[in-house]
C-alpha cells in the first residue's frame, strides 16, 4: 500500500531537510523543489527511494523528483504540509526568523549551465498553468466534436466560453507566474501583462501603427513581467519605506506598461510571427526530416526536464493559428517508448520485476505520460532508450511527410499526448484527416520502436527466452 507521508518525509530528509527547501511545486509527473544548498541532496539515496522513478537536476538549485502521475500530487501536498509544520515548530521554539520555506522566491543557487538554467526557469513559469491548459483544451476538443456533429447546440456556446476564457487571459497568468518565479511581486507582473490583452490598446498608435489586443501573446507578457520585476527591484533598493509603498508599484506599472505598449508588444509580435512562419516553412519544406529530428530528440529533452520550456512556443502557435503543429510530432517520442517497452516485455520473459513495471507504466505511456517507462524501463536498460528514440523518429517522419503534402496535423491545446491527444486534433484540412495521420504516426512509432528494440536493444548474451541482463549490462548504453 502506498504511503505518501513516508515518501514525503524521506524526500525531505534526503534533500537536506525542510530548512533547505525554498520552493515546492509539481507538474504532471514531477515534484519540483528549489534547494538552497544542492550539496546537501543525497542523489543516490533519493533515486533508490521506493516510488521514485528518477531524479533530474541533481547538483543544481532546481531539483525534480519523478514520481509519476497521480502520486506526485499527493506527495507534493504532503511535502508542503510537513514543511509548514516544520516552520511552525521552528517559530514556536524561537528559531523561526525567516519566511516559510515553501514560499516561492525564484531559483537561487548555482545551475548546470546558463542555458539550462534559463530554460528551467521559463519552464517554471508555465508548468503551473498546465492543468488549466489541459482542462480547457479537452473541453474545447469536446466542444469541437459536438459542434461538428451538430449535437447539443444549446450547450456548445457555453462550452466555448468555458474553454476560451483562460486562453483569452493567459497573458495575465503568465505575467503573474513570471514575477513570482523571478522574485518580483506577482500581482504587479500580472497587472503589467494585462496591458497586452486589454481591448483598449487598439486605440494606441506608435510609430504610425495601431496595436492589436493580444499582440505578442505570451511572449509579450513574459517580457513585460520580466521588465516589471527588474524595475520593482531597482525601486525597492533605492526608495525609503514610506515612499516605497506608494511609488514602487506606481513606477513599476507605469514604466513597464509604457515600455510594453511602445516596444515589447511590437517586438514580441514580430517574434511570434516568426515562430509561426518558421514552423510552417519547416513542415512544408522539410516536414519528414523535421519530424524525424523532433520525434527522435524529444525523449532526451524529457529526460533532462527541459521539454516544458517548449510551452511558450506551443502557446504562441495556438494563439496565432488555432493549433500547434509541433505537439503531434513530439508526441511520437512517447509512442516509440511504448513500442520499445513492449519489446522488452516480450524479450525478457523471465524478468518478472521488470515486466510488472511495464504493465503498471504502460497505460500512462499510452496516454502520453512517458516518465514511468523512461525511468522504470528504457533508461536503466540503456539500449532500449536509444531504440525508443528511433521509433519516435519514425513516427515523427510519418506525420511530417504528410505536412509536406499539405496535410498539417495540429493540437488545439497542450498537455496530453498519446491517445489522450485525439480529442484535441485538427488541421488545415479538418479534424478527420488529422486523426487518421496522427493514428498512422502512432502505429509507425509503435512498430518501429518495437522492431528496433527487439533487434538492437539487448546485449548479445540475452536470448529471447533468457533471463534479464546482469546489473552491469542493464545500466550500459553500449
Helix content: 55-70%
Taken from the alpha-carbon principal axes, the silhouette is globular
Mean pLDDT: 87
Distance between the termini: 37 Å
Low-confidence region ranges: 96-111, 464-478
| Estimated radius of gyration | 24 Å
Defining key terms:
478 residues; mainly alpha; Gyrase A, domain 2; 3 domains; 8 strands
Describe the structure.
It is a single chain. The chain is mainly α. The protein folds into 3 domains: 4-111, 2-Layer Sandwich (Gyrase A, domain 2), CATH 3.30.1360.60; 128-273, no CATH class; 322-474, no CATH class. The protein has 17 helices and 8 strands. The protein has helices at 4-14, 43-48, 71-92, 114-126, 130-149, 156-168, 170-181, 186-197, 217-236, 241-304, 311-321, 326-347, 352-366, 371-381, 383-404, 431-456, 471-474; strands at 21-26, 30-35, 54-56, 62-66, 205-206, 209-210, 410-411, 425-426. α10 (241-304) packs across α11 (311-321). The two termini are 37 Å apart. 49% of the residues are buried.
Short description, anyone?
Helices cover about 65% and strands about 5% of the residues. It has 17 helices and eight strands. Strand 3 and strand 4 form a beta hairpin.
Topology, please?
Elements: H1 4-14, E1 21-26, E2 30-35, H2 43-48, E3 54-56, E4 62-66, H3 71-92, H4 114-126, H5 130-149, H6 156-168, H7 170-181, H8 186-197, E5 205-206, E6 209-210, H9 217-236, H10 241-304, H11 311-321, H12 326-347, H13 352-366, H14 371-381, H15 383-404, E7 410-411, E8 425-426, H16 431-456, H17 471-474
Antiparallel strand pairs: 1-2, 2-4, 3-4, 5-6, 7-8
